[in-house]
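hi!! sorry for the late reply, been swamped w classes. u asked for the two structures so here they r. pasted raw, havent cleaned anything up. first the sequence of the first protein and right below it the tokens
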Amino acid sequence: MSRKLKGIAAAPGVAIAPLVHFHASLEHIPTAKVAAEQVPHEQGRLAGAIAAVAQNLQALQRELSGQLAGGQLRIYDAQLSILHDPTFRRDVEQEIAALGVNLEVALQRVIARYEAVFAAMENAAMRERAADLRDIGRQLIGALLATERTKYTANGQDYLFAADEFLPSDAGILDRQHIRGIVTAHGGKYSHGAILARSLGIPAVVGVDEVMLVSNTGTDAIVDGDAGIVVLEPSPEERAHYERLAREQRGVERRLREQRLQPSVTPDGTLVRLYANAEGVHDLDGIDAPATAGIGLFRTEFAFMERRQFPTEDEQVAMYKRAMAGAGGKPVTFRTLDVGGDKPLGYFKMPEERNPVLGWRGIRLCLDWPDILYTQMRAILRASAGGHARILLPMVTSRSEVVRCREVLQQLVADLREQGIPHDPEIELGVMVEVPVVVMVLDDLLPLVDFLSVGTNDLVQYLLAVDRDNQRVAKMYDPFHPGVLRVLRQIAERATAAGKSVSICGEIAGDHWFTPLLVGLGYRDLSMAPVFVPRVKLMLRSFTLAECQDLAARALAMQSTAAVRRLVQDEIQVRWTRYLGTANEEQAS
């Protein structure tokens, strides 16, 4: 009987193969008391271990240099910096002297203390840095014990790597010819292991708590790296479904190689600009700048969340310039700080709120603390001198909020001009449409802004009064609801009539089943996680504008979500399969 486990989608794609359980090889770590006269000798062992691990990491960098971009290779630079950190070395040496213990024990104790500091951080991305410390500790102790790490193989057979976690050094001992997927009990989307899995093109699901307990080596399994699901002992129907998805994936990859740099147009020549979303500078290396129209949503809050205090203006300027360089001179839309709700700042005390998602967040917070807004807007303006930057305001609900932000922007432009500081005086200002009431007052807002960006994640949640993270009602969260489609059409029509551009930056922009409907509703700018750009582009190139408009018109006239989904299944999915040629592959097999 099949069993479905939910985890975190860490690297996209579908993989089907038997699981192979892997465990850390350091089962026994020696413990010994060290006499005072032996302390210098014990401390001296650390230098040799550091040199050996550094040599191995540098060799791994060279080995992976043909498969990873510079940003991913810098993961190992981060580990090397920990190794050579004089504070780390001093802490280990002091632990040996203070407690009279051997080096292996001292390393364990120091690493555990460092880990505890990261584990206490509120930001998930920073908490996951603890994994790098564990990896360093494991490598150092392995070097001290002269333990050669076992290659992760399955005797030449395809396999799914299953372990408690996937650490950066594990990439060097994978059988990359036969590994098909990764599933781990621990880890997160922004752990370095997850970043490496994405870069190596290995589908991965992490944070599957039970996987090592309810499966064994040899258990047939499916890793769905798009949905964050692992299926154990899949039924014939489930296997057939995922085999179809895997064929589709291969079709996408083949077509992508053929059309990567082709324009994102419908067969009859309608251009739809495809932008990438970025959650911070750590996402820039994953963006294929030549294949995208720019960065349609740069979420600046993640850079704030990864720090222990507010970044200075100069630090923000450097970050925004780096984002613009990563976009290759194409537009970059910087969303101003959107903290609060599910994105708190550990160093900024916020009040307890019964419903923080509807509370003090986004532009509300920034207008109450104008220094935050002034510093950020000024930094974006300064960075704009070197490219095409745009400013996007989150959680807007009224005209007065936009008026106040426009006044701040105009004052900052005047100040920079007076001081002779380079900037773009014509920088564009836009608002996110994510609160339903904004749709009702768009005619009041549009004269004040240069563009709109529809945040469908929150907009759909608010329209349907459904918390999509609440398991009791999450199944009711469905953007294919006819009412949602009608609101999206209304936004596109109002913006077009006013001569303003409008984009979709929520998750549905990257859902290729939605692409023909969005084009038919009037959207010509879509911004999504970089991994979804290829599928959306391929879907776009399989429907003419007239066909998209016909599909959208029929969907708008429907009276149930189920009816819209049947339309998608019967017409969009069928066309997609035909376009990719998977039907021919099935016949050939």
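now the second protein. again sequence first, tokens right under
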Amino acid sequence: MQSALSHPVARVCVDVHLPHLDRPFDYLVPPELSSQAQPGVRVRVRFAGRLVQGFVLSRNQASTHRLQPIERVFSDLPVLTPQIARLCREVADRYAGTMAEVVKAAVPPRHARAENAARARDDHPASAASPVWSATDDPWAAYTGGDGLLKRLAAPTNTRVVWSPRPDEDPAERITDMVTAALPRGPVVIVAPNAREVNRIHCALKSRFDARRICLLTADQGPQARYSAFVHALTGRCDIVVGTRAAAFAPVDSPAALLCWEDVDESLVDPQRPGWHAREVMALRAGMNDATSLVVGGFARSVETQGWVEAGWAVSLTPTRPVIRTWAPRVKADPTESTAAASHARIRDRVFPVVRAAIAAGPVLVQVPRRGYVPNLVCQNCREPARCPTCAGPLTLASAQAQPHCSWCRSDPVTVAAGTAVAAGTAYSCRNCGSQQLRAAAVGVDRTAEELTRSFPGVPIVSSSGDHMVHQVDDTPAVVIATPGSEPDAPGGYTAVVLLDAASMASRPGLRSSEGTLRRWMYAANKARPGSSVIIAASPTLGLVQAFLRWDSAWWAARDLAERSELHLPPTVRSATIEAGTETLLGVVEQLQPIDHPSWRFIGPIPLEDQRSRLLLSAPRAQGHAFVSAIKEVAAEHSKSTKLQSLQVRVDPYHWGVDT
């Protein structure tokens, strides 16, 4: 412990998010607070005339500045450990953000009652013995190179693995295997995209480990429960942490292994500045310790992790082809189904007998990409998207009896024309051709359920979507209609899986659409019983459908990565987006272009809404450090000047372009 006499200066990371103030500031430690104001504790200080919170990073002997005293120490618990502080600094530099922004995500808000209760408890299960992995009936033998994975995790090495699970197995069980192998060396941190996946992994872990050894860190826990779990991990009362994206900063010392599940999911990207991805945070954290292993897994492989494999930074772990041929579901691509999106029959004649036979043996899963009844309406004559005459928003239909309404302003286009009220019953008129007839451009869960009720009378229909999620169904005959990600679990698996509107999903624009679509298909197919039929409503000639038919997401990721390399698109280049006014962005281009990097590319400014524009920038990965540093320097210059408009910067954004 450092005293006020020998180390009277505290270096503090203040909670200020301006780029030009992204540095620690020195404060005087009053003698009465010296024993508490140790590195890692949360304090309150005066900054620019107002009181703000911060964290003590270190205690020093002297400072060259005239210092103000620390106003208050909230608790003597060092919640920001040196390792996490270093990680926050690296993440901030990686994404051109400020350390205060990252620390805010890494350390949850203090809850005094939870902290006091957690510190008073004495339930440390560290003496509990860990289960020992047995090679008898080893499921990892089905993987290329899988026989040595658990041995490498058990050894003090920095193994880096990109893992694609078998089509028939529960990934939570394999994650538990990896935890079993690595835990004798130290703590293990597991990150999953949502609370549902976290709970599934948690249940698998509890089947082998004492529940007191496991901490849950999720956003939906509530402030008290989340902070209590954070303190348990911080004080060493648990050695397995499983949670959503912020768990990547779990306060455990020198973790033996970091496991990231389903890194393709957008939920692992922090929506707040600077927009870090949990996968990249865990990769940076693994690089800080030579004995920390990293495993990134998912049904669909991301182009980023495929780049790791091709660069030799990580190894690929996939099932052998004979295992895939044996255990993969029987997938059939039916292009005739892709024309049924807006028709009266959601399941066509060739598929109907397969579904009817499967229902007799148990539940059948039907995946529909969209929720609601009819989420998009178009003109019957010219197929022009139907727009609200008030705000130009898209028109939707809530039910068969409802009138079309705007999904933005909720106005009724039948009684509103060009912003003027007219007599009720007036038909909507297309702006392009004048037609008054509408048709569905896409069909949602509710209408699909309505139509399948007529197709399968007497069979229970279960709907599950984000608005009303069903977590589990039994093994009795039923038709389960679900949006991607909300598919209920069936204890014995589904007797058949039908993927409707797959052709429209495969043709969506955007760099991220293909890997996300493939993940949704494979996630649903994984819920089918071994040997069951999976019918996908798309042409088998599509490359994405071929990857699904072969259960080979690594092949698709390699192909996608090669195409992006030719086109100089992320992640083969470092990228960034900057949003501001058009004139401001033109000035940004002038500031960056004089730098001697002719390979940097500038696209824009591209006009957006609210008189703002977006600038797209990219640079070769070899120049990534200089690229990010230059962007951060420009952002800092704008933030410290009241005459310049502030910039919204995102480095390596999840979405690339304008239509995000």
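hope this helps!! also noticed smth abt the second:
The CA atoms of residues 334 and 404 lie 32 Å apart.
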